[in-house]
């Protein structure tokens, strides 16, 4: 069954708990961390994540769009992340990448690796046996409300053909709505991140339900 992970980046931060409580039907919450360096935007960090953790039992899917994930990762683990996804483009070597994956797993937190639209799937093939999730970005990371780039669909198809062998799941993020979500699910995607489509909907429950339909 497809999972929907509403992206809290599109919520009204002045009433975060109330906003999270409207997400009926979702089991995951996507939490975008932006450092103003890896991406040209700044969002929120681990202190707010700790408050989000207190406010909800949803699975906290933390997406680190930051230059130095190893430096900050323990803070996000302490704050209550259930899954931590970092970008392959932020990593300088295979050794450092494996060190980060093993470090996160040692704290019993799941690990994802993300690729930007311009990064080929080949970049993450060496890690498929070691991670729980691959996050395919369908927009350039940094901002909500952008249009879906269908380069993601081909990547999802490629990854889907390898899923059975390795056991990871596939998530897509950026420009997801009923139509683009359907394309991704048909290609083999397991988790749909949706920001503006859910938070701007007249009925958030209906928006989430429309993504859950297979
Ligand atoms: O990571 C990001 C943007 O960098 C996303 O999680 C966005 O928050 C998704 O927003 P929509 O494209 O669904 O509005």
From TrEMBL:
Active site (UniProt): 32 (proton acceptor), 173 (proton donor)
Pathway listed: Carbohydrate degradation
Alphabetical list of InterPro entries matching this protein: Aldolase_TIM (IPR013785), Ribul_P_3_epim (IPR026019), Ribul_P_3_epim-like (IPR000056), RibuloseP-bd_barrel (IPR011060)
Biological processes per GO annotation: pentose catabolic process; pentose-phosphate shunt
Record field: catalytic activity: D-ribulose 5-phosphate = D-xylulose 5-phosphate
The keyword Manganese belongs to this UniProt entry's keyword annotation: yes
Cofactor, free-text remark: Binds 1 divalent metal cation per subunit.
Cofactors demanded by this protein: a divalent metal cation; Mn(2+); Co(2+); Fe(2+)
Enzyme Commission number(s): 5.1.3.1
GO MF assignments: D-ribulose-phosphate 3-epimerase activity; metal ion binding
Residues annotated for a divalent metal cation binding in this entry: 30, 32, 63, 173
Gene Ontology cellular component terms for the protein in this record: cytoplasm
Keywords, sorted A to Z: Carbohydrate metabolism, Cobalt, Isomerase, Manganese, Metal-binding, Zinc
Top EC class of this enzyme: isomerase
Entry's family note: Belongs to the ribulose-phosphate 3-epimerase family.
HAMAP family: RPE
Function summary: Catalyzes the reversible epimerization of D-ribulose 5-phosphate to D-xylulose 5-phosphate.
Name the UniProt record assigns to this protein: Ribulose-phosphate 3-epimerase
């Amino acid at each position: 069954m497809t999972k929907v992970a509403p992206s809290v980046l599109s919520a009204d931060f002045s009433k975060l708990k109330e906003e999270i409580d409207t997400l009926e039907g979702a089991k995951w919450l996507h939490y975008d961390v932006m450092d103003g360096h890896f991406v040209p935007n700044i969002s929120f960090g681990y202190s707010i994540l700790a408050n989000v953790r207190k406010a909800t039992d949803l699975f906290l899917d933390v997406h680190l769009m930051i230059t130095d994930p190893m430096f900050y990762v323990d803070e996000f683990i302490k704050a209550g992340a259930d899954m931590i996804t970092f970008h392959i483009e932020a990593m300088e070597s295979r050794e450092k990448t494996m060190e980060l994956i093993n470090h996160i797993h040692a704290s019993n937190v799941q690990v994802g690796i993300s690729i930007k639209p311009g990064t080929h799937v080949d970049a993450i093939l060496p890690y498929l046996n070691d991670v729980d999730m691959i996050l395919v970005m369908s927009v350039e990371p940094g901002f909500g409300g952008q249009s879906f780039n269908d380069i993601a669909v081909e990547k999802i198809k490629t990854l889907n053909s390898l899923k059975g062998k390795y056991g990871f799941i596939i998530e897509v993020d950026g420009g997801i709505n009923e139509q683009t979500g359907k394309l991704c699910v048909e290609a083999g995607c397991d988790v749909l991140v949706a920001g503006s489509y859910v938070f701007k909907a007249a009925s958030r429950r209906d928006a989430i339900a429309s993504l859950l339909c297979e």
